[in-house]
Write a structure and sequence with these properties.
alpha+beta, 160 residues, 3-stranded antiparallel sheet, 4 helices, 7 strands, 42% helix, 4-stranded mixed sheet
Length: 160
Amino acid sequence: MTAHPLEVSYNWRLPVAIASVAALGCIVVLAQGHAAGWVPVALLVVLIWLGFLLVMLRRGRSYLMVDGSVLVLRPWRAYVRIEGHQVRAVRQVLTPRGPSFKLIVDGPDGKPVRLLAPTAWLTGGHAALFGWLVSCAPEAELDKGSRRTLDQLRIRGLIR
């Protein structure tokens, strides 16, 4: 059986389209008004739009895949493969769509590395991550929020 990455549950395309139309509309209104100082304001609109675009594309590229005893994440451009024994701790991170989790893992040089598992942005992300943690990284230290999430998943019957 081949492992598959979880699907993104967040529709990032609609907000990007709306923001793009709104930014373009603002620039057109500014350009047609010919008010003094409209160019710096238009540049500010473009910078804000680019920042929003980067955030939305980052969310849209959320990635998590469980491949047997290996968890695969994509923090930026490259994929990172994590073995269960590398995970030292799990910390909850609140996002607008709910909790995601930072995994503190042993890096290649032995120093701890923090990696985000974007479970809030993925369909079935919490169950997949915590199912993997329970089976492959049972010694990982869970913070209060992570323990609460694990308890809720067990109560709902999503993991054992």
